[in-house]
C-alpha cells in the first residue's frame, strides 16, 4: 500500500511540475492575467478539471512560480555576502551569479520582470514578499560586516534594498540584452551593474547620518 501511495504521490508531483513548466513556457509571450487555464492543461495533456488537484487557480500557480524563480537566487547571493573578501570581489561575484542565473533561467526572470507590477494581485504580493525576505537576508549579512558598525538598523535595511533593487533591475536588463542580441549589450549591462554597485559601496563607506535627514 505504501508503495502505491508513493507512486501516486510521485505522479502527482510530476504533473504539478508539468503544469508549472507549461505555464512558464506560455508566459514567455503573455501575462498571467491573460493566460487561460485550458491553455495550460492542453499543453500538459490533462483535463481542465484535473488542474484543481494541484492549484486552486492560476494565481496560486503563479505564486509557486515566484517561489521557484527566486528561491535559489537567495541562497547564492547570501553565501557571497557572507564571505569576508573585499567589496570589489563580492560585487564582481554577485553580478556573475546574477548573470549565470539569467542565462540558466530566462523564462523565470521574464516572468518576474513582467509580473512584478502585473495584474494578478496574489503574484505581485508574492514577488514583493520574496524581495522583502531577500532584503532582510542581505541586511543581516551587511550588518555583520565591520563597515556597518554603528549603523542604525533602518539604514542597513535601506542599503540592502538598494542592492536588491539593483540586482533585480540588472537581471531584467541582462535578459533584454540577450533577447535583443546586439553585440556587447550584455557586457555593457554587466559593466554598468558593477559600477552602480561600487557607487553604492563607496557611499556606504562614507555614509554619515545627518541630523536634518533623519
Automatic annotation (TrEMBL):
InterPro entries per the UniProt record, alphabetical: Homeodomain-like_sf (IPR009057), HTH_TetR (IPR001647), HTH_transcr_repressor_FabR (IPR050692)
Domain HTH tetR-type as annotated: residue spans: 13-73
Residue ranges the UniProt entry marks as DNA-binding: 36-55
Alphabetized Gene3D superfamilies for the sequence: Homeodomain-like, Tetracycline Repressor, domain 2
Pfam families according to UniProt: TetR_N (PF00440)
Keyword set, alphabetical order: DNA-binding
Protein name: TetR family transcriptional regulator
